[in-house]
Amino acid sequence: MRWKKPPVSVLAPACLYLVVGVAGFAYHFHELLTRQPDAGWVELTEFLAVVCGVFMLRGQNWARWLAIAWMAFHVAISFPVPWALAVHSLFLAAIAWLLFRPEAMRYFGGLGALP
After folding, report:
1. Is the dihedral of CA 81, 84, 88, 93 positive or negative?
2. How many CB atoms lie within 10 A of CB 108?
3. Crossing angle of helices 61-77/8-33, nearest 10°?
4. Cα–Cα 20 to 30 A to 5, which of 30, 93, 104, 110?
């Protein structure tokens, strides 16, 4: 299989998910080691961010949808804190806009074949 170069509208959010996932996993890892409540769930969400980033770079359409769901989850858990809700909502809107631009749609196989 030939490697498809991702457009910037995919590359930017994919790299963001990779950085956030790896940094978050490393930052919260001590909580897992000390067996704090919900640490496993936190690490799972960080791992999912890495999965999103890697597979978006590989052109997997399901990873784009998982990335949107991952961000929507963060919007949902932000409801008690207005500023967190606003920030997560803005990130969700920006990421969705990037991942559904025409060049991203083509990359993920949604608008015709790539050359």
Report:
1. positive
2. 22
3. 60
4. 93
Please provide the DSSP assignment of the chain as one string.
-PPPPPPHHHHHHHHHHHHHHHHHHHHHHHHHHTT-TTHHHHHHHHHHHHHHHHHHHTT-HHHHHHHHHHHHHHHHHTTTSHHHHHHHHHHHHHHHHHHTSHHHHHHTTSSS---
Mean pLDDT of the chain, nearest integer: 92
Residue ranges covered by each domain of the chain? 8-107
Backbone CA torsion sign across 114, 111, 71, 8: positive
Q: What is the pLDDT of residues 1-34, one digit of tens each?
A: 556 899 999 999 999 999 999 999 999 999 989 9
Distance CA(46)–CA(59), nearest Å, equals: 20
Prediction pTM value: 0.89
Per-residue pLDDT band for 111 (boundaries 50, 70, 90) equals low
